[in-house]
Specification:
Length: 143
Amino acid sequence: MTAIHLANVDAEADVLLREDAGGVATLTLNRPDQFNALSSALLGALQSAVQDLARDDSIRVVVIAGAGKAFCAGHDLKEIHGHADPAFAQEVFERCQRVMVELTRLPQPVIARVHGPAYAAGCQIVAQCDLAVAVPEARFATS
């Protein structure tokens, strides 16, 4: 499993894991203590991974999963509220929008593997995928 780390974006390490096996790339949101909330670092890593996958002919399918108890709790509101400049929030939301569009443009089918809560922007990730596979305990919600 390869960890993607964008030190320029955030101090978090290994916020997104990528594992390739048999033509399948699995991207795992890796902030389990924060229920995989979409921080600026995680969004940056996800965007970079999606752009790389778009050019990778060896990958036939992309799976998006979450580490820990949740698939994704949505945006990292603690990070957003921690910035006094409202432009930070705008930048995060615009990047998220770009990532969502890039997910739909991937040449490979994208599968969401949902094993727990998918809330707000986490639910949006699921909605952008071509297929979602969810356990009975999975929960979906938007405000």
